[in-house]
Amino acid sequence: MRRLLTHSIINLANNKISYLYFMNKVETIEDFYDRKFDWMPENFKNEIGHFNVFNLEPVVDGKIKPVPYKRRDFYKITLVKVTDSSKIHFADQIITVKKQALSFSSPKIPYKWEQIENIKDCAFCIFNQHFFHQFGNLDQYSVFQPNGTHIFELTDEQVERIEAIFKRMFEEINSQYVYKYDVLRNLVFEILHFAMKMEPSTSIENKHLNASQRITALFLELLERQFPIDEAHQKIELRMASDFANQLNIHVNHLNRAVKEITAKTTSQIIAERILQESKILLKHSSWNVSEIAHSLGFGEVTYFNNFFKKHSQMSPLKFRKE
Fold first, then answer.
1. Contact, 255 vs 248, CB < 8 A?
2. Is 71 exposed, middle or buried (0-12, 13-18, 19+ CB in 10 A)?
3. Which of 269, 282, 261, 275 has its CA nearest to residue 224?
4. Fewest beta carbons within 10 Å, which of 3, 101, 177, 198?
5. For 13, how many CA atoms within 13 A lie in the half-sphere containing its CB?
6. Which residues contact 186 (CB under 8 A, 6 or more apart)?
7. What integer pLDDT is reported at residue 42 of this predicted model?
8. What is the overall mean pLDDT for the chain?
């Protein structure tokens, strides 16, 4: 129960969090079209935002185009079938797709497919938040949140249902219907809710937040606002439980009690886990040296960072980077 409660509080906090993982360069929609097709659609920029749908195989002219590991500034929903297992990297997670799956990616999460030569069929749509202007905030949906589920393995029957929705997308976008983009939004929502119904449901999100839950949600929000670290001169400022308590204008003991009650973890433990997670991302996906990473994560000396990393991962930062 505590674990479900913790995930619920994190998701509630993430509704307002600018929680983006480290990327050297964000891929824009323009970059996507240039990399994939070397052309831009005529209606690329308009007052309603951007939406497009594709049905592509990854092999082009006999060559496999590698997909870079990076963060995008747009949303993407993908239906993929593989001939053999294929892996997808989501932030610091690696998920294996054995046969067929539905995936969701957002500007908050970098991703990359491995073994793309095993992908036999792929349909996907891309869109930006502006396309849903006045139709809701996409980040409120768990499939687009950093702590949500991003990959859903599908049965053959479920694949048929999603394929039917993509077929309707192709029909609508190629039609002359004046309100076709309203229909396309509805089809995106149909896929979103199809996936989220597959997730375990909890009643906690429908309950009124008590004081401890509100404090914990605010603490988690402050913590996540400090990430990602995407520039060398960037440095996190809140590292101690007392730092967060001062920001929330409460006593540190009050904060510690609330966080412990809701998450079953100490405030310091949660902070350390988040700093460790970010350090692993920087070690694996940046070219910064250990000293630069240590500085960005608020360690005054690289020795302190080395000791911290060894304590929590049982290996040195350099050894982790080489693995």
1. yes
2. buried
3. 275
4. 3
5. 22
6. none
7. 58
8. 79
Residues facing 82 on adjacent strands:
119
Burial class (CB in 10 A: 0-12, 13-18, 19+), 153: middle
Nearest CA to 36 among 129, 122, 130?
Answer: 122
For residue 39, the model assigns a pLDDT of 56
Beta bridge partners of 112: 89
Neighbouring C-alpha atoms within 13 Å toward the C-beta of 163: 13
Joined tokens for residue 131? 């396309």
Distance, CA of 26 to chain centre: 14
| Res 243: pLDDT | 94
Per-residue confidence (pLDDT) for residue 186, from 0 to 100: 95
Query: Could you give the CA distance from residue 43 to residue 47 in angstroms, rounded to a whole number?
Result: 10
CA distance 47 to 128: 12
* The two structure tokens encoding residue 113: 């497919």
Q: Which residues of the chain have pLDDT under 70?
A: 1-27, 29-30, 33-47, 57-72, 90-93, 110-111, 114-118, 146-147, 200-209, 232
DSSP 199-233: SPP-SGGGSPP-HHHHHHHHHHHHHHHT----STT
Round to whole Å and give the CA distance between 211 and 9.
12
Rounded to 5 degrees, φ, ψ at 151 are -125, 130
Q: Which residues of 13-29 are buried (b: 16+ CB within 10 A; e: fewer)?
A: bbeebebbbbbeeebeb
Q: What is the distance between the alpha carbons of residues 35 and 62, in angstroms, rounded to a whole number?
A: 16
- In the prediction, which pLDDT does 211 show? 81
Q: What are phi and psi of 202, to 5 degrees?
A: -130, 155
pLDDT of amino acid 9: 47
In this prediction, residue 23 carries a pLDDT of: 38
Residues 6+ apart with CB under 8 A from 148: 11, 141, 142
Q: For residue 224, give the nearest of 179, 171, 183, 277 by alpha carbon.
A: 277
